[in-house]
Write a structure and sequence with these properties.
Blueprint: H1 2-35, E1 57-60, E2 66-69, E3 76-81, H2 87-102, E4 107-113, H3 117-126, E5 134-136, H4 138-143, E6 151-155, E7 161-166, H5 170-182, H6 187-193
InterPro entries: AhpC/TSA, Thioredoxin-like_sf, Thioredoxin_domain
GO molecular function: antioxidant activity; oxidoreductase activity
Protein name: Methylamine dehydrogenase accessory protein MauD
Length: about 190
Amino acid sequence: MEFLVVSNIALWIGLIVMAIINYALIRQIGVLYERVAPAGALAMNQKLEVGQKAPELSLQALANQLVNIGGSRDKSQLIFWVSPDCPICKTLLPALRSAAAAESEWLDLVLASDGKQHDHQAFAKAQDLGGFPYIVSELLGKTYGVAKLPYAVLIDEQGNVASMGIVNSREHLDSLFEAKERDVASIQEYMAGR
């Protein structure tokens, strides 16, 4: 009988200790969650700044249509630089298509790159990118200061650069939209001012 009482007391003590440990772990996870801010797209650009007028260009896309970049328009414009040789670009294309469809009420997607026209036509066909304007222009990349891929610039309806940065994941892509919505240069800036 004494053994049952002692074991029951030991089990209750163990249960209370486990509850305290679980509470401490949950509290620590909460503290870490507050310290580790979401990572947004890294804005590395020496030619453009968020808030300035986006350079206006009219360029021909692969499908021979003329595409106007920048300037005032009904919808925002996301210019997304890709390359047939970029493995990250290829993995991001499904997320990019999904985001363009989900945000189509306020966003137009334009794909951009430089290099040989033929390589990009084959890439666009293989990746089923025919639904989006695809511009192959070295001038566009140089004008917008694109040095690394995949890179994106979000231009708002007034023709201003709303956000920009290197996009390596869907989270980075969404951070561009979030930065525009919150009227900040980047998610990092938003978290610093919070």
